Every structure is written in structure tokens, then in C-alpha cells.
Amino acid sequence: MSDATPSMVADRYRLDELIGSGPMGEVWRAYDTRADWVVAVKILGAGEAGAAGEAAREALKQHAQAVARVIHPNVAMVLDVGDQEGAPFLVTEFLTGTSVGEDLAAEGPMPIVEVCDLVGQAAAGLDAAHRAGVFHGQIDSGSFRRAASGVLKVVGFGLPDEEPSQAERRYLAPERASGRPATAAADLYALGAVCYELLCGRPPAAPDLPVTGMRATPPSPPSASGAEAPGASAPGTEAPGGVGQGVVPPSAIRPEIPAELDRLVLAMLAPDPARRPSGGEPVRRALAAIARPGAAPGAAPAAANPAGAPAGRPGDTQVYDFNGVPRAGDTAVYESAELDPAPPRTGNKLLIQMGIAVAVIAVVAVAMVMWAGSRKETPVAEPSASTPPTPVLTPDVAPPARPTSEPPRASPTDLTPGDTATSLVQTVGPKATLGSGQTPAGGWDHWLVKFDEAVTAQEDIGDIDPHVAEKVHDKLRKAAKKLQDGHFEPARGQIAGVYRDLRNAQVKGDVPLSGPLASFLDDFAVS
To answer: Would you say 525 and 430 are in contact if contact means Cβ atoms under 8 Å apart?
Structure first.
């Protein structure tokens, strides 16, 4: 630990291990002595950054406050910002998983579906940051790291004017290389370069660079109008994403990459920022549709097969006809429709299931009849010489009723006609009750992150009203902001209100009674 770096920050965070450093500061694995958990602390003013000057320190302080406003499951959550003897610091959740760059170095190119999933999560996180007015500007394969739960999160947001490192330059958009500031479009270019590297095992390169094992791009047949199809550009022309011959298509290195993914990656790597996708959310939707072919019926397929071409088979990848000519607003082709549930399947499988159900019902009915018949047989005692005959009760004679001092107890689940259930009965007590002055394990900030992730997990299942989920996300963000400002009781009151709203939504059927969100609500009680 250098002399310029304190062992304790803000009398709360104990610096245990240096895990990264750069021109503007250091990143430490630290221990939060109040919340009793591990965090990551980034400090400006350690080492060479001590000479950065007051202006640079003020810039990081403002940047840290801006990043702290970005609350999303795919962004490493900022837990605290402050100033330590003139050096601003930033505290975030500590991620124990590996980065996609580390996975790539250890295992090589990843499966296509896994790449679509990881890059889709990264795109969602960047989209949330961009909507908050925050741009990353320093994206490389180490900028996306897994949490212990496996969720991928964006980390390492850089300063707007921070000089990129040598390793980051291969992910730089052309406009960034020429000195322009970070933008959303430049972040998407860098994300496209990371996606290219995960698919091909190497960053994008110009075709005149030697690439081991590379094959030439196969020629594409001309379209009906006489223009060449996407992916086959004549010398001096550009392909439909605005990408010229400066980037080799991923499918030229890895033939099994589908055409839709080829076009999306090339569009993200377009030299002209205006030709790239309009945001991270369209990229996420397009990747979801590619990973699940046929699940996005909102996309428009080609009008018809060329004359003489064989008809498509079930499971074939659809190819969309752009007529070989880029059009204004072509970015919109990647704004795939929301995935609709698959239609119910019919056929032999359904008939077999119905037959099995009928057979089970018949067996149960026969068993019930036999059981009921056995109960009607009343045993009769055999008379003996020493025992007088025992009178036998016939069906016409009812046994006298025994008097009782207390009425029969009604079952909690018995409802008389006309009754309506008005409350939920909790059968298992919560693991913890969070009242005034009480703090959950790991601190409120960590607990809010888990709460937000539970809502997101329920959304991924598709079993929650979208409007309810959006309101919960918004209220949790406001509660997190109150906690950061030191207003603990108002924040706890707002969280308790979120609990009440979700319980009412469960009664109305807008929120399910089972699943990750219901489990989280049952584990904790907030008063």
C-alpha cells in the first residue's frame, strides 16, 4: 500500500487488497466495517493520480455521483460516494465472478447462444446508463463481470475525457480515436467489438491483416433487382450496416454464425455512428431473437423465396431481404418485437396426454367406490353361551348423539357460500423482520440490490404485471437515493410501502404467489 493511500476510507472502509490501478486512481477490495461485507473502492489521488489536480478530482466526484444514479441489475451498483482528504472515492458492490475477457482467455470462443445472452445483458446495462446520461468510454472485455448469481454487470465507467489505455484502443470507435468524447454510439461500437471477439477469439481486423485459419467470404447470389445481397460488397462500396471492407464478417472466421448475427455485429461496428443501432435495448432484443429463432413473430421476413428455390424447413434461419441497398433508418430492423409466448401445440402428444388423464381418473374412481363399499360393512359379533346377544344397529336406527360442551371448530380453509377470501395466510414466518433501527445482513444497499434482482428475475419469467414491475423498480431507485443521502427512516418507510403494494398486487393477481419475487417477500418482513 503506497504512502498516499490511506488504510481506512471515511472511517468505514478498510482497504485489504489492490485489485486494479490506472492513470486516474486505484481500485481496492475493501471491507465495510458497518455493513459487514466486502465492497470495491475506487480512489482518485493514489499514486500518480495525486498530481491530477483539483479540476480532475472534481470531475471524478461529479462523475461518481452521476454513475450512482444508474440502478439496474446489469450495472454494478454504486453504494457510496465521498471525499477522503481531498481525494474523491467511489464504493460499489464487489463482484466475485470472472469477466468475459478472463473467460475468453481461459476457454476460447464461446457458444453462439451464450454470446447472445452475455452481450444482451451488457447491452441492457449500457442502455440504462445511457438513459441516465452516463457513457462508459473505456469498454473492453474486462468491462463486463459476473456477480456470484451469474448475472453479468457493467463495471469500470471512465471519465468523459479519460485517455483510453493501450488495451482499450482496439475497441475504440473511429470517432473516439480521432479525439471526440464518449457517446452512446461509441459504447455500442466497443460492445460490438467485444461481441466479435467472443465469437471469433480475436478482435475485429482489416482484411489485409494476416489471420490464421481465415477463409474468404463466400459470394452471395444477386437479388431479384440485380443488386448484390447483404454481405457481398463490390470494391469501394459499403455493406448494409455502413461497414465497408475494414471489418471481416464474423462468419468468414466462424461459418456457423447465423446471417442475422453477422449483420448485427457489422452494424454495431459501422464507421458512421448514425449507421449503428439506435440504443442498447434494440441490440438486446435482436440478440434475444437470434438466440431463440422463430420466437419473434413481429419481425418481417422476406417477401418470397427466389424462383426455383426450395421452400424453408422448420427450424431454418430466416433471411431478411434488404434488396442490397441501405435505407435511411435501417437501424430499426434490429428493434425486434417483444417475444410472444409460443402457441399451444396440438396433435398426437395432446391426445396421449388426454388418454393418460382419463385412465388415471378411472382408476381413482374405481378405488373410491371400492373404499366406500368396504366402509358400509358392519361387523356382527358371534353369540356365545356366556355372552348375551349384542344388539346390532340397523340403518333405520341412529345412535344417540353424545352431548358436547364446545361447538365444532371450523377449518381455517372452510368458506361458507358467499364468503370471499380477503387476505393471504402466511404459513411460514419470515427469516428477518426489518423494523426501525434494524439493518439487513450486508446493509440496506446490498439488500435493495437483491430486491431489485428478484423483481427482474420475475420479469424474465413473464409472470408479473409490467406496470407493477416498473413502479417497483422506480420506488426502489428512490429508496436507494434516500439511503445514499442518509435519510434512513424515509427510505425504510418507502420500502415498507413497496411491500404493501406487492402484497395487494398478489391479492389482485398482478403478482404471483410463487417465484423469485414471492420467495424474497416471504423471507423478509418490513415494518
So the answer is: yes
CB 176 within 8 A of CB 164: yes
The pLDDT score that the predictor gives to residue 292 is 84
d(Cα 300, Cα 321) in Å, to the nearest integer?
Answer: 9
Sequence-separated (6 or more) residues with CB below 8 Å from residue 250: 196, 199, 200, 257, 261, 262, 265
* Residue 322 confidence (pLDDT): 38
pLDDT digits (tens, 9 = 90+) for 255-268: 999 999 999 999 99
Residues sharing a CB contact under 8 Å with residue 65, sequence separation 6 or more, in sequence order = 81
The 10 Å Cβ neighbour count of residue 296 is 18
- The whole-model pTM stands at 0.54
Cell of 352: 396421449
Q: How far apart are CA 175 and CA 272, in angstroms?
A: 8
| Model confidence at 55: pLDDT above 50 | yes
Q: By 3-state DSSP, what share of the chain in percent is helix, strand and coil, each rounded to 5?
A: 40, 10, 50
Could you report the per-residue pLDDT of 368-408, keeping only the tens digit for each? Answer: 777 766 655 444 444 444 444 444 444 444 444 444 444 44
CA distances from 322 to 63, 225, 328 (A): 42, 11, 12
Q: Helix H segments across 184-258?
A: 184-200, 250-253
Phi, psi at 254, each rounded to 5°: -130, 95
